Amino acid sequence: MTMYELILKKKRGGALTSEEINWMVREYTNGCIPDYQMSAMLMAVCFQKMNTEETTALTLAMADSGDRMDLSSIKGIKVDKHSTGGVGDKTSLVLAPLVASLGIPVAKMSGRGLGHTGGTIDKLESISGFRTSLSEEEFLKNVADIHIAIAGQTKNLAPADKKLYALRDVTGTVDNLSLIASSIMSKKLASGADAIVLDVKAGDGAFMKTPGEAKALARMMIQIGEKAGKAMTAVISDMNQPLGNAVGNALELEEVIATLKGHGPEDLTELVFTLGACMLLSAKAADSMEDAEKKLQDALFSGKAYGKFLEFVKAQGGNTDQVEDPCLLPQASLRMEVYADREGFVTGIHTEEIGRICLLLGGGRAVKEDPIDPAVGIVLHRKIGDFVKKGDSIATICANDKTKCQAAGDRLKAAYEYGDRSLEERKIVYEVIH
Asked: Could you write out the DSSP letters of every residue in 129-160?
């Protein structure tokens, strides 16, 4: 068989066999299939789609393309959480130390930014000295000793996905159900956790634009996970506006620290409690969602979660002075206010555009070799439902390039929609699928 033949088969709507998918993943991982051929296959998949059998075969082939993490030496039920990606989504950085502060082992492999969405690893690297590349021994030791480790994919953990993830980011092949499901679940299966909680985003700033599409993705991933013997839960959450107020790596980290101190944005805090409750139930550490949320609230507002975050940062080599004084995190040289050009209620925010504006400023990658500027981004002062007067500040642009700053301001102003009536309050959580 050849890659040329498989590209033609998929382009014409054929279903690839498990044997063909295993061969393709193995040969691409080994460097025998060039990026340009795999790019063609990814685009063919986006147009022709994959069926359930193909998606499962792709997931398992990627999970088996390298080593699998063995967490059996760690006591207790190991839990993991993954988000399908959004704008301003810094949930994991609040959630993981919060859950770990209750003694539940959180073993999390995270990714970098993909397209217009931010990445947990990029955010953590805003802290000087913080190491996201850990050996397997270090990773296991941290989870065993302090109940938390967050790291990037190791070279040998689902290496096929690592290569495909970077390629999809720059070839316009991110938003396909099967590619998203197989990418997420291959990493989760290879990471070795016993229970997995999925945060599946729906809305303008997500890859899934409607709750129905998000639910279809969630059910696909739950099916894959359960076949592999994992306890699975999915939360369908809103991404029709950025989560919290900050968008950009160091800016989001500041918001994480504020949330861990008990005064974060309401939408972020609510989502963290829902996801955390699901994690506690999966770990058999609570009797109900209500019981779990009470335990999480106590841990957050008592300072236990913040203390665990400091411990986590120190364990991975980060400068804890920057946590205790966020002003020491990377700061942009330019700050520009963006003002409302009319009076009314904010009725919509083009969330994907907000993510792309952050990309323009240097807060993400246009090509996979691009460096990231951790200091740049956006802080929103008005969100959906808020009333503004003409001339009120709706956001602050943080930049290190004057031309990009001005272009970002123009685009951000256009990303807001206004009306004469306030919309009904939006739900941050649409549904929980246990």
From this structure: T------HHHHHHHHHHHSEEEEEPPTTBSHH
DSSP 314-359: HHTT--THHHHSGGGS---SEEEEEE-SS-EEEEEE-HHHHHHHHI
Going from the C-alpha of 406 to that of each of 27, 173, 249, 259, 403, the distances in angstroms are 46, 30, 20, 30, 5
Q: Does 35 share its domain with 96?
A: no
Q: Cα dist. 326→251, 252, 261, 410 in Å?
A: 9, 11, 12, 29
- What is the reported pLDDT for 111? 72
Domain range enclosing 381: 332-419
pLDDT value of residue 84: 87
H or E element at residue 167: helix 159-171
**Paired tokens of 142:** 């941290």
The pLDDT, as a whole number, for residue 116 is: 62
CATH code for the domain of 292: 3.40.1030.10
If pLDDT is split at 50, 70 and 90, which confidence band does 410 have?
very high
143-147 mean pLDDT: 97
Residue 79, CA atoms < 13 Å, CB-side half-sphere: 28
Q: 99-116 pLDDT, tens per residue?
A: 999 999 999 988 776 656
Strand partners, 387: 345
Residues 168 and 232 in one domain: yes
Q: What is the DSSP letter of 114?
A: B
Catalytic residue numbers read 82, 161, 168, 183, 187
Distance CA 154, CA 138 (A): 12
Residue pair 65/230 in contact by the 8 Å Cβ criterion: no
pLDDT tens digit sequence for 117-143: 668 999 999 999 999 999 889 999 999
371 or 225: whose pLDDT is higher? 225
